[in-house]
Fold this sequence. Notes:
With about 100 residues, the protein is an alpha+beta fold. The chain has helices at about 1-5, 15-20, 65-75, 90-100; strands at about 25-30, 35-40, 50, 60-65, 85-90.
Amino acid sequence: MEWLLAGLPQMPGDAIRAAVTKPIALAFTGPGGGSWTVEPAGDGGDAVTVVEGHRDNVAATITTSTDDFIVWATHRRPWTDFDVQVDGDEAFATNVIGAIHLF
Length: 103
């Protein structure tokens, strides 16, 4: 999971930069699981910043299994085929999910 999340600041490019306008948490269940917070990168070269842990100021939390994330984040199948739970701002979270594309 760390390897995939390390690519999140670069791989989706402008799509993730446009979608992540405020902090959002990714919570993974299963092997390699844990929580990470994705935040706007600010003035840096990356589109977003990913930090380990669930920060208190997130607008939403996206929860999915590690196995499912690998499939939907790489666009092998749509995220709607899986049990992805959103707590908080659903419209914002859905936009972020749609912008995630790892390869």
